[in-house]
Write a structure and sequence with these properties.
The chain is of the alpha/beta class and 515 residues long. It has helices at 34-49, 69-83, 90-98, 112-126, 144-153, 179-192, 208-218, 249-274, 283-295, 303-308, 433-436, 444-454, 463-482, 499-506, and strands spanning 2-3, 24-29, 57-63, 100-104, 133-137, 167-171, 198-200, 232-240, 309-315, 317-319, 322-324, 342-347, 359-364, 371-378, 398-404, 408-416, 424-432, 490-492. The structure holds 6-O-phosphono-beta-D-glucopyranose.
């Protein structure tokens, strides 16, 4: 069974008329880095191709490497050729490249910022730009303070209340290592920028399928009445990655799966799936609704840490058809590292809607496949009519939102097997984005950059939410620390995680889904 777009209906629901983007200069700290090459420049280029940027804009990359503008353009082109959703169109490329500039300097050198200011002003004059500036901090958190202070001291930041001058800052993760360090970062940035000027990125919120969670829940009438503890048995959120560590040892060794994926991306998925209906689409109303979920998370502390969490590390195996060394053998990883590459959790949300409903979360690297999904499993039907035989229980209904890949959703329902006997079998009603819509989905960074330019903070993390999620995560980290990294089962690369994770859910008579 498949679902496609209904041709009889004015099918595209328009909730707003699209963002209004003012001409601006995007200044990227970390301009010679990986994120800029793989994600940011391709995203800007796609926005240009899709006609979503105003004709007037400029991009200034700042980095330690002593590149010329042309060298920056060459790297940008290579990045776009490799990572962009749409390929290079020569006629558009020339104009795009002209608007890319590079400024070489060290972030911790206070003298650099006056040179940067001259560069930005020169670019603004050349392209007739009004002085709207967006600063993207694609740099390690230790550089957040010097970059913000440097910008402030060079007079590059305007106060928020000026109607004709915009200054905004985009902050990349990791925003902290625990609650205390996250607070310190927020204080530092908050000394220079007003909260209304700060856009903390969680790129999962920019994914099309993640934005669709709110549409699914609140643009349809059939789900909300059953979206609660009365009808839902449990919810599973899985973010499984086939890739191992790659080249990010220095970051990941200090982070691990809980900080890297759960504190931000997975808790945000949880917020969207569990939040109360916001009363409007105003960014702060939506952010309040997400925030309320974080406030209701039952803390996992002390003894509960052992009972409700599993951490593990991959050992040697085969993932993605390739031999993967054990995590401790990866380049840059300590031979006795106790960093977790997998985590599974069971949690509860203490409010009227979700009381008693377990949420099972899991994420890991070097797993069998790249697959992220949210599965909402409904309660069993009563043991009458079609469900009287314990050895042949009817499969429960499951609504699965496929975040990536194969973006879409499916609903498992029971159906009669054709024939003269009363036999039933589960079938799937399936919706695939690719089949239903001809428009390709933009990349998360395209949407997020556009929103910052338009001043829409709905898909960004507010300070209170970052700190609330760190507060919850820090309890778990402390529980783990108290055991000195002793709980660390292994799972061979290419497998679904350790048996301990199976036990976590199976002791509740439930099973992880096969993804
Ligand atoms: C990043 C993490 O935030 O998200 C990475 O630091 C992870 O470790 C990545 O691989 C996953 O993002 P996506 O969009 O590929 O699912």
């Amino acid at each position: 069974m498949t679902m496609t777009i209904d041709q009889d209906k004015p099918s595209i629901m328009q909730t707003n008329s699209g963002p209004t983007v003012k001409p601006c200069t995007l200044v990227i700290f970390g301009g010679s880095g990986d994120l800029t090459r793989r994600k940011l420049l391709p995203a800007i280029y796609n926005l240009v191709l899709d006609g979503l940027l105003p004709p007037n804009y400029a991009v200034v990359g700042i980095g330690r490497k002593t590149w010329s503008d042309d060298e920056f353009r060459t790297v940008a082109r290579e990045g776009i050729e490799k990572f962009s959703r749409q390929s290079i169109q020569e006629d558009k490329w020339e104009e795009f490249a002209r608007r890319l500039r590079y400024f070489s300097g060290a972030i911790d050198d206070p003298n650099m910022y006056h040179g940067l200011r001259s560069q930005i002003e020169e670019v603004e004059t050349q392209f007739d730009l009004p002085g709207h500036r967006i600063f993207y901090l694609a740099i390690p958190p230790t550089s957040f303070a010097p970059s913000c202070l440097g910008l402030q001291q060079a007079g590059l930041i305007y106060p928020p209340e000026l109607p004709d001058r915009i200054s905004r800052v985009i902050v990349e993760k990791p925003i902290g290592h625990d609650l205390e360090s996250a607070r310190a970062i927020n204080v530092t940035i908050g000394e220079v920028f007003d909260e209304s000027q700060i856009y903390r990125i969680d790129h999962y919120l920019g994914k099309e399928t993640v934005q669709n969670i709110m549409v699914l829940r609140f643009a349809n009438s059939i789900f909300e009445p059953i979206w609660n503890a009365k009808y839902i048995d449990h919810i599973q959120i899985t973010v499984s990655e086939a890739e191992g560590l790659g080249t990010r040892a220095s970051y990941y060794e200090e982070a691990g799966a809980l900080r890297d994926m759960v504190q931000n991306h997975i808790l945000q998925l949880l917020c969207l799936i569990a939040m109360e209906p916001p009363y409007s689409l105003d960014p702060d109303v939506i952010r309040n609704a997400r925030m309320e979920v974080l406030r209701c998370l039952h803390p996992i502390r002390g003894k509960d840490v052992e009972q409700f969490t599993v951490r593990a590390q991959y050992s040697h195996g085969t993932a993605n058809d390739q031999e993967v060394p054990g995590y401790r053998r990866e380049e840059g990883v300590k031979a006795d590292s106790t960093t977790e590459t997998f985590v599974a959790l069971k949690l509860f949300i203490e409010n009227w809607r979700w009381s008693g409903v377990p949420f099972y979360l899991r994420t890991g690297k070097a797993m069998p496949a790249r697959a992220s999904e949210i599965a909402v499993q409904f309660k069993d039907i009563p043991e009458i009519l079609f469900n009287t035989m314990p050895e042949a229980r009817q499969a429960p209904n499951v609504l699965t939102l496929r975040i990536q890949p194969h973006e879409g959703m499916s609903l498992r329902i029971m159906s009669k097997i054709p024939g003269n006997r009363a036999r039933s079998h589960p079938v799937e009603m399936n919706f695939n984005y690719g089949d239903a819509f001809s428009e390709p989905s933009p990349e998360a960074y395209e949407r997020l950059l556009l929103d910052v330019m338009a001043g829409d903070a709905s898909l960004f993390m507010r300070r209170d939410a970052v700190e609330a999620s760190w507060a919850w995560i820090t309890d778990i980290l402390e529980g783990w620390k108290a055991h000195g990294g002793r709980w660390l089962p292994e799972y061979p690369a290419g497998t679904r995680g350790p048996v301990e994770a199976d036990r976590l859910i199976e002791s509740d008579n439930r099973k992880w889904r096969l993804v």
